[in-house]
Specification:
Shape of chain B: elongated
Strand content of chain A: under 5%
Distance between the termini of chain A: 55 Å
Structural class of chain A: mainly alpha
Oligomer: heterodimer
Largest interface: A-B, 51 and 46 residues
Largest sheet of chain A: 2 strands, antiparallel
Number of helices of chain B: 3
Helix content of chain B: over 70%
Order of helices and strands of chain B: HHEEH
Strand content of chain B: under 5%
Strand order of the largest sheet of chain A: 1-2
Order of helices and strands of chain A: HHHHHHHHHHHHHHEEHHHHHHH
Number of strands of chain A: 2
Largest sheet of chain B: 2 strands, antiparallel
Strand order of the largest sheet of chain B: 1-2
Number of strands of chain B: 2
Structural class of chain B: mainly alpha
Radius of gyration of chain A: 24 Å
Distance between the termini of chain B: 17 Å
C-alpha cells in the first residue's frame, strides 16, 4: 500500500477517535467548559498537559532545527523542559489553591484591579494567537505533503476538526482528546526513532543509540564523531560545538523557560485537577511524558542529519529517491545545479551549495530518508497532526475563556447568564479559528521560531507578575501593571523591529548585547521585575484582604471560594 | 492553624524550593551552557560530557527535581497536618481530600 493510502487510513482513524471522545464528553456548565469541572485525575492531566504542550513545534520542527543547529539547538531542549521545574515549584500548586478559571482571573483578583485584568486578557490573547498560528502552519505542512492537498485546504481541514471538538467539549472534551492525542503522538515519534536507531547503531533505545557506534553498513565509529567529521569536511559547523555566543544561548534558554511557566494554556491545565497535591503530581507526570519525546529528539536530529548527508551528498540529481521529488513539489526542498554537473553539492559554503532543505520537514522526511516501511511514514503524519491539533485546541480555549469569561463576564457584562457566557465562549472560538487559519496559510517564519516569540512575550508579561503575586505579599497593582506593560511592550517592540521593520539588521552585531529576538524575553522579564519593584516601592501597599489571599494560597488544602 | 505554624510551613517551603532551584540553575545554565566547553573535555561512550548534559542529562535532572519536590512537600504537608490537628483545631480534616 502506498504512503498516501496509509496516511488517509491513520488520519481518518485518529480523527474519528477524537470526534468520538468529543461527543462522549460534552460540556454542560461553564465550569466544565473552562476547567473540566476541576475533576481530572493527575495522570490524565499530566498526559493532557504533555499533549497540550508538545505542539507542532516540538513534534515537527524542533528535531529538524536541532539537526541544523547542532549543539546550539540545546536551548529548545533545556528551555522547553526546564520551564516545568519553575512551573511545578513556583506556580502550579499556588494557582491551584487560588482556584479560579484563568490567568487573568488570578491577575485581576490578586492585584484588585480591572485594568490589571484587562491587560492580562490582552496579553493572553496575543500570546495564544501567536502560538496558535504556528500550529496551523504545522498542520498545513503535513496535509500538503501527505494528503497531497494544497496548504490552504490542509489548514481548513485542520481548523474544522479543532473547531468541532473545542466548541463542543470545551476543556472537558479537549482534555480527554488530548490524552488520546498524547498516545498517538508519542507512539508516532518513538516508532521511527527506534527503527532508525536499530538500523544505524543496533541499539533499540534511541537515547543510547545517540552515543553509540554506527554499524558496519554506516561505516562504524561513534555516531557523533562521524557526524562531526562529515560536517567539517563539507564545510558545515561541527555538530557538537556551538556557534552562537554563550550569552545568546543563555538568554534564549531562559526566555523559553520563563515563557513555559508563563503560558496561559499550560497554566490553566493545573486548574483542572482536584487539589494542590494533585497539581504537584500532575506537573511531575507531565514532565515525564514530555521528557520521553525531548530526550529522543536530539537523537533523531543526529540520525536525520547523518542520514541526509549520507544520502544526498554528491548524489546524481537524476537518481534522487521518491521522497526527494515529492518534497520538491511542495517547495520545501529545492535544488539548483549551479555548476551544471548533474550532482547535488550539499556543502556549507552558500556560494557552492546547491541544496536547500526546509528545517520543518526533517522529522517528517526522516523515515522516508531512512527507507522505513510506508505505514511508519504515515504514522508520523498522524502524530504530527495530533501534536498540532491538541495544542491548537488548548490555545483556542484560552482565547475563548479570555473573551467570554474575563472580558465579558468579569469586566463588562457581569449580568449575563451561564448559557449566554457559554455561547459567547463558543462564538469566540469560531472567530479565533478563522484568524488563526489566515495566519496558518500566510505564515511569518519557521514554526518553532513563531512559537519562540510567544514564549518571549509570556516570559516578559505573566511569569514575573504571577511569581511576584505569590512570593511578594507587598506587590501591589501599580507595580504589577507597570511591570506587565513595560515587559510586554519592550519584548514586542524588539521582536517586531528585527523581524518586520528592519529584518536586514537581524544579526548578532546589531542585537542588543548580542541577544537574538528569540532570547529577548529574558531581558523583558528583567525589565518587568525592575518596573514592578520600583513602582511598588513608591505606591501604597495592597489592602489587607488581598494580603490575606496571598497568605491563604501559600498553604495547602482546598480553596475557600470557588 | 495558627499563624506561627503557617509561618514555619512557608519558611520550610521556601527552603525546599530554593535548594532545588539552585540545582536547577547549576545543571542547566551552569553545566549545560556556561561550562559546556570545559566539560566537553571529558568523554563517556560516544558523548562529550558537556554536550550530553546540555542535550539529555539536564532533562533527566529536571524530572528528578520535580519528584524530589513532590516527595519533600508531601512530607512537609504530613508534618504540618499532624501539628495543626494536634493543636486546638482538628477542623482541617477535609484538606487534601
Amino acid at each position: 500500500m502506498s504512503v498516501q493510502i496509509w496516511t488517509y487510513g491513520f488520519v481518518f482513524l485518529t480523527f474519528g477517535l477524537y470526534i468520538g471522545i468529543a461527543i462522549w464528553s460534552r460540556a454542560g456548565s461553564t465550569s466544565e467548559f473552562y476547567v473540566a469541572g476541576g475533576g481530572v485525575p493527575p495522570l490524565a492531566n499530566g498526559m493532557a498537559t504533555a499533549a497540550d504542550w508538545m505542539s507542532a513545534a516540538s513534534f515537527i520542527s524542533m528535531a529538524g532545527l536541532i539537526s541544523f543547529l547542532g549543539r546550539d539547538g540545546t536551548f529548545y531542549l533545556m528551555g522547553w523542559t526546564g520551564g516545568y521545574v519553575l512551573l511545578a515549584l513556583l506556580l502550579a500548586p499556588y494557582l491551584r489553591k487560588f482556584g479560579k478559571f484563568t490567568v487573568p482571573d488570578f491577575i485581576g483578583d490578586r492585584y484588585y484591579s480591572q485594568s490589571a485584568r484587562l491587560i492580562a486578557v490582552f496579553c493572553a490573547i496575543v500570546i495564544s494567537f501567536v502560538y496558535v498560528c504556528g500550529q496551523m502552519q504545522g498542520a498545513g505542512i503535513v496535509f500538503s505533503r501527505f494528503l497531497e492537498v494544497d496548504i490552504t485546504t490542509g489548514v481548513i481541514i485542520g481548523m474544522a476538526i479543532v473547531f468541532f471538538y473545542a466548541v463542543m467539549g470545551g476543556m472537558k472534551g479537549i482534555t480527554y482528546t488530548q490524552v488520546a492525542q498524547y498516545c498517538v503522538l508519542i507512539f508516532a515519534f518513538m516508532v521511527p526513532a527506534i527503527f532508525i536507531s536499530i538500523m544505524m547503531t543496533g541499539q533499540p533505545v534511541p537515547q543510547v543509540g545517540f552515543g553509540s557506534e554506527l554499524t558496519e553498513a554506516f561505516g562504524g565509529g561513534y555516531l557523533l564523531d562521524r557526524l562531526d567529521g562529515m560536517s567539517e569536511s563539507l564545510g558545515f559547523a561541527v555538530y557538537t560545538e556551538g556557534q552562537r555566543s554563550t550569552q545568546d544561548v543563555f538568554f534564549v534558554t531562559a526566555a523559553l523557560m520563563f515563557g513555559t511557566a508563563g503560558l496561559p494554556h499550560v497554566i490553566i491545565r493545573f486548574f483542572t485537577v482536584p487539589n494542590v497535591r494533585d497539581a504537584r503530581r500532575s506537573a511531575g507526570y507531565a514532565l515525564i511524558f514530555i521528557a520521553v519525546l525531548y530526550t529522543t529528539a536530539p537523537a533523531v536530529s543526529a540520525f536525520a542529519r547523518t542520514n541526509l548527508i549520507n544520502t544526498v551528498s554528491n548524489l546524481e540529481y537524476s537518481a534522487v529517491p521518491e521522497w526527494f521529488s515529492k518534497w520538491e513539489t511542495t517547495g520545501l526542498i529545492s535544488f539548483e545545479d549551479k555548476n551544471n554537473d548533474g550532482r547535488i553539492q550539499y556543502v556549507g559554503d552558500p556560494e557552492v551549495n546547491e541544496l536547500n532543505v526546509n528545517r520543518d520537514i526533517m522529522v517528517l522526511a526522516n523515515p522516508e530518508i531512512a527507507g522505513l516501511p510506508n505505514w511508519v511514514v504515515a504514522l508520523v503524519a498522524a502524530g504530527a497532526l495530533a501534536a498540532a491539533l491538541s495544542t491548537a485546541a488548548g490555545l483556542l480555549l484560552v482565547i475563548s475563556t479570555s473573551v467570554a469569561h474575563d472580558f465579558l463576564k468579569r469586566s463588562f457584562m457581569p449580568q449575563i447568564t451561564e448559557r449566554q457566557e457559554l455561547l459567547y465562549a463558543r462564538l469566540s472560538i469560531f472567530v479565533a479559528v478563522l484568524i488563526a487559519g489566515y495566519f496558518g496559510i500566510n505564515p511569518p517564519a519557521y514554526v518553532a521560531q513563531v512559537v519562540a516569540f510567544a514564549f518571549g512575550l509570556a516570559a516578559a508579561s505573566f511569569f514575573p507578575a504571577i511569581v511576584l503575586g505569590i512570593f511578594n505579599k507587598k506587590m501591589n497593582k501599580q507595580g504589577a501593571i507597570a511591570g506587565m506593560i513595560a515587559g510586554f511592550s519592550f519584548t514586542a517592540a524588539y521582536i517586531i523591529y528585527f523581524r518586520f521593520i528592519n529584518p536586514a539588521a537581524d544579526n548578532a552585531e546589531s542585537w542588543l548585547f548580542g541577544i537574538s529576538p528569540e532570547g529577548i524575553g529574558t531581558m523583558g522579564t528583567l525589565v518587568n521585575l525592575c518596573f514592578a519593584m520600583t513602582f511598588a516601592k513608591f505606591s501604597p501597599e495592597p489592602p489587607a484582604e488581598v494580603q490575606a489571599i496571598v497568605e491563604d494560597i501559600r498553604l495547602p488544602g482546598e480553596a475557600v471560594a470557588r | 492553624m495558627t499563624n506561627e505554624s503557617a509561618n514555619t510551613y512557608w519558611k520550610s517551603n521556601i527552603k525546599i524550593v530554593l535548594s532545588l532551584m539552585a540545582v536547577w540553575f547549576i545543571i542547566s545554565f551552569g553545566c549545560g551552557i556556561l561550562l559546556v566547553d570545559v566539560l566537553d573535555n571529558f568523554r563517556f561512550g560516544g558523548f562529550k560530557l558537556g554536550f550530553w548534559i546540555a542535550q539529555q542529562g539536564s532533562i533527566f535532572v529536571f524530572v528528578a527535581l520535580i519528584y524530589i519536590y513532590i516527595h519533600q512537600m508531601d512530607k512537609l504537608d504530613a508534618k504540618f497536618n499532624k501539628e495543626s490537628s494536634a493543636g486546638e483545631k482538628p477542623a482541617s480534616a477535609e484538606e487534601q481530600s
